[in-house]
Amino acid sequence: SKDTGKNKYTLFDVTMEEELNRNSLITEVLRHAIANEEVYVVYQPQYNIRKEKMTGFEALMRIRNPKLGELYPQEFIPIAEESGMITELGEWILREACLFNKKLIDSGFDSLTVSVNISSVQLSKANFIEIIQNILEETGLPAGNLELEVTESTLVSSLSNASVQLSSLQELGILISLDDFGTGYSSLNYLTNMPIDTLKMDKSFVNNICSNEKDARIASGIINLAHSMKLEVIAEGVERIEQLEVLRKNRCDIIQGYIYSKPLLPHILLETLMPDPAD
Ligand code: C2E
Ligand code: CA
Ligand code: CA
Ligand code: CA
């Protein structure tokens, strides 16, 4: 009947409205997240298979709000990008990550690389390089201990500008990593034309590396291709020992995933690195 149709429409409307409400709530949370100290960083260690040690860690953003609880980047990063708040939040995490790695260097861990995700919104700002330079100066972190992670879609949406910006950053000694490799559009084009030091193979390839012959061959092909271009390869989302073994056999350089470590709060990572004086 007509009534049922109307009810359905109303229901649909309510769902949309709820989503809009949540989005505007999150936008408000983002606006005050830094001032209210609701934003924080977790660090996920990266393990170098050949050197058999941790060689770096990725900074990942988290937000905890009294009303909304724990928020994850998959939900709030797109909203931060749309509202423009990513510029401020992105600068905040960069400074935080550089400060933390400087602290590690001062404690004797001088060869660790901290990786920070960069949004296309940040990369397309004219003063992005200046911001990075200022952060390195303020924190005292050597440029070679900082890596910026960009995705193929970042490179697409910031267009020709991106290549120039990334080249300047590389000249400063900062490392550039191509994130989520294999999920974008014209991967091979970016490999040859962009200034890149590291390639992060997306976890979708790692997922089926043991069960799907095609994925295994793609993974092995990506590793060989990257090595032929003098790039280091990080495999993302490694969860099982069998995956690690296949990656090792294929000469993957570094792994990042739950098998080695989940993302950790800074003090937990510090505790893991530092021997307990009471032991
Ligand atoms: P990403 O850059 O690909 O980061 C890796 C994601 O995989 C992280 O999710 C991490 O927690 C998760 N992960 C790590 N190991 C495993 C594993 O073994 N299995 C599985 N299933 N997942 C694993 P997270 O922290 O939720 O971040 C999601 C995405 O949000 C990131 O993907 C990145 O694109 C974005 N993001 C996070 N922090 C920032 C930030 O500060 N700025 C920007 N622009 N984006 C960020
Ligand atoms: Ca990343
Ligand atoms: Ca990734
Ligand atoms: Ca990503």
Automatic annotation (TrEMBL):
Domain EAL positions: 23-277
Coiled-coil parts of chain: none
One cellular-component annotation, GO: plasma membrane
Primary localization: membrane
Subcellular location, record wording: Cell membrane
GO biological process, one term: signal transduction
Keyword annotations: Cell membrane, Membrane, Transmembrane, Transmembrane helix
Protein name, as recorded: Diguanylate cyclase (GGDEF) domain-containing protein
